[in-house]
Amino acid sequence: MSRVIGDLREDHRNVGDLLGLLAREIDVVDDAGGGDFELMRDIMVYMTRYPDHTHHPKEDLMFERMRKRGIAPDTEATIGKLLREHTALAEKGSTFRDMLVGVVDGALVEREALVATGRDYTDFLRYHARLEEETVFIEALELLDDTDWSAIESAFEAQIDPIFGPVVQHDFQTLYEHIRNRVET
Length: 185
Ligand SMILES: [Fe+2]
Ligand SMILES: [Fe+2]
Description:
Helix content is 80%, strand content 0%. It is mostly helical. The longest helix has 32 residues, at 73-104.
C-alpha cells in the first residue's frame, strides 16, 4: 500500500487548517477592516510555495499514471477539470498573495477586493480538495500498482513540506508558532 494517497490526504488536512485560519482573518477584515495581514501573507506564501509546487504536481503525475492504465470517460473528464483547476488555483493564489504582500508593505488595497479575492480562493480550494477525495483518490487506489506509486514517491522524495515536514523553515517559523499555539489553547 502506497503512502502517496495518505500523504496527499494529510496535505489536504494541513491546508484545510490553514484555510480555516485564513477564512477567520478574512472575516475580521470584512467586519473591522483590521486583521493579521502578516499571518495571512505567510499562509499565502506557503500556499504558493508548497501546495502549488509539490502537492498539485504530485497529483498531476498521479493523473498521468491513471491515464496510462486506462480510465473511464467520466474519470477523464474529472481529471481534465482538476488539471485546469490546478492552473486556476496557482493564478488565484499568486494574485491573493501579491495583494497581501502589498498590504504588509504599506500599499493601499481596497478592502472589498481583498475580502472577495480571499473568499474566492479559500472556497475554491476547499471544493477542489473535496472533489479529489471523493473521486480520483478512490479511483487511483483501485487503478495504480506498486510501480506507479514508487515512481510518484521517488519523483517527489526531495520535496519537503516547509511547515508540516520534519523541519520548520525559517520563513514559516512565526506561522508555525501560531498554528501550534492554536492547537494547544
Ligand atoms: Fe489538486
Ligand atoms: Fe489535492
